[in-house]
């Protein structure tokens, strides 16, 4: 029997599953803590926890990861130079350090707008080539004619030998600057993706696994490993995409809404007739507006490991993620004594970082470019947790409650605190770690509120459920503001929201929230078997999907009519509209098949759906003046 291995490296946990190919059943699964900055250790730990008897017969490995997203958010990508060609509209505060704008570009008809200034590109490239790892190139209206991008690419390859990413290769949408940003971010990620993928290849080879390796994209489709190395930008948000695909597969529903409760956040998305709903515009990550097609989702910074803190007798949840007390007690043997004996701050002093249950510990990551005060803090924050009060007594001078924030953002320090995961430990609904630590933490925090520890935990659990319902209804009601929806959810109107599609829950102990959600929603709420590793299943069951747009358009110059065909790879002229339509139809199919073959998908497994939209001059039809073809190719990747 043959098996497939799915891996999801998420923000908190790395999940691994093995699925038997004949009956598509999960036969083994495991969760391990995600490791930073080296994700590979967490992946190895997740695979090590699987039943080894299945390993020799694995023929397909598929991965989803937060690596691209985290790299962009943390601004740790490799240095890249961006070359913009033509009349670009740039932001008033340019966020890219190494860039140049040169003459060139095309117009809407794909005709040259200005002659390309190759000499300016040459001078710039020679100036920066020794301090960058790659170049990104975006030309005005390259989606109508990529000639200038191709010329610059070819010259840069010859001059520098560095990787070159062109905007037209990643998107056919309007927006030359945004295509440039997409190419720029993709170029930043190339070395990181190369290291990550080679590390996985090394690990599966070490285990004797001879399998095809795939990666999940942020639109829920899979690509071959070679294309994943060339287009790592397309793996941003692949975690939420994996949860969507996994929920649909595990629940057996091609159409369903999905609530994925992770350690860091809650994500809501929708699968319709087996395909994810995508955003109309490109994905936005870390303030960058890209042209990457991604699933539409509603996200809130409230997950199982969100920090619960008290201020003015009010309970706050998140937005930051911390290590739960129950887990910290397992990782650090002396932590329980420290938790019990910790000083409770005065109510005036209370803040997010000043809590009787808040502690800090070094991540072990090598520190660089630190201020003298940060270095002083790092000498105190070591391998055993310390509170802000401990730091104060050791440093001998007052420190701001926010003084450790910069160290947390640099991933040098990890915070520990009370979380919704601790809440479920207190209530006895989830007891994977040390329940006693959670109980102690709940009792300490309850003293700062009008509630006892049980009432506090029930209140927090209800708030998490309300957040899940709020995210879901905000997703479903496009155009309705979230505050208005929250008024309805929290109001006593003797009414409930009704969902006409199943709602699938994914995440560790999500079954604990079903009863609370049923009080807020009228819906078929499903917690499928293996919900705790649904993302890893999703990484495995994504289809090979490729969408290509080709435009056929009439242009008139005086009395002469020209028919142009614009595709992702070329611009061609025809004398008759029928010839252009025939060529566009065959060309689109050919591009789909080329993509599938490059993704290691057998052509015989590919089906192609063609959608055609005509624009005519008259209401009653007639000959079109513009036709847009949308080609959608789908296939299930076969094993090696």
Report a brief summary of the structure.
This protein is an alpha/beta fold and 640 residues long.
Outline the structure in words.
- This protein has 640 residues and is of the alpha/beta class.
- Among the domains are: 77-189; 306-456, no CATH class; 544-635, no CATH class.
- The chain contains 20 helices and 30 strands.
- The strands form eight sheets. It has a six-stranded mixed sheet, sandwiched between helices.
- Strand 27 and strand 28 form a beta hairpin.
- Helix 2 (67-74) crosses helix 6 (176-206), helix 8 (238-251) crosses helix 19 (534-541) and helix 15 crosses helix 16 (453-476).
- The protein is globular and about 85 Å long.
- InterPro entries: ATPase_NBD, Hydant_A_N, Hydantoinase_A, Oxoprolinase-like.
- Residues 179-320 form the Hydantoinase A/oxoprolinase domain.
